[in-house]
Write a structure and sequence with these properties.
The protein is an alpha+beta fold. The chain has a single domain, classed as Phosphorylase Kinase, domain 1 (2-Layer Sandwich), CATH 3.30.200. Helix content is 23%, strand content 34%. It has three helices and five strands. It starts with a helix and ends with a strand. This is Protein kinase domain-containing protein. InterPro entries: Kinase-like_dom_sf, Prot_kinase_dom, Protein_kinase_ATP_BS.
Length: 112
């Protein structure tokens, strides 16, 4: 699995741009307390309205302009999503459930 990721990266191939769920996040989840934060992301506890299930949601700030230093590039966000999907199911890796997108953020819905 790692070899496949390295081979893909070493060939300089661009991953195709993913289309994430654009349903308004707040219509699906109730947003709770902050669990943690970093330079470009905030993690909050969220509850799925339809089921009451609890998750952690990582709100990653998207880079607005290619020349900007603020936010994370689309390529890096897609790479993180790809890696989480590739290693999903492993007992030592947090499970990615869904990915949403707003004009300013990409939101990864993760196991709590």
């Amino acid at each position: 699995m790692r070899d496949e990721l390295r081979r893909h990266q070493s060939l300089g191939q661009e991953e195709p741009q993913s289309k994430f769920n654009e349903t308004p996040f707040e219509s699906v989840f109730d947003i709770g307390d902050e669990l943690g934060s970093g330079q470009f992301a905030v993690v909050r506890k969220v509850v799925k309205k339809a089921t009451g299930e609890e998750f952690a949601a990582k709100f990653i700030k998207k880079r607005r302009y290619a020349t900007s230093r603020r936010g994370v590039t689309r390529t890096n966000i897609e790479r993180e999503v790809s890696v989480l999907r590739t290693v999903g199911g492993h007992s030592n890796v947090i499970e990615l459930h869904e990915v949403y997108e707003t004009p300013s953020d990409v939101i990864l819905v993760l196991e709590l």
